[in-house]
Sequence to fold (103 residues):
Amino acid sequence: MRRYQPLKPSRGTVWPPDVAREIHDRDRGCVGPRIGMPGECDAMVGKDHVRASHGIGMKSRSTADNGVLLCGRHHRVKTEDGRTWRPLLVGYLSLRYPLTEPA
Fold:
């Protein structure tokens, strides 16, 4: 039965090149400080999913209206307190994508 088989190793998140470019062009750096996240940015930024996948081993959609650039520090802040920061990140995205659903 499927549920007793181990999960396949993750291949990591694959962002389509056009989506990655749109996120980089839109954000131009970590959005954490723009929504009030505490702390200074560290040097490296990466694309991060705003909405959770709601399932172990599942990926949320890798689309521009579900991705932001966050530095490592602010990614940790979001991960540790998603109930606070996800709604603010969704609000940031809804300024550009008005049909973005609530968190």
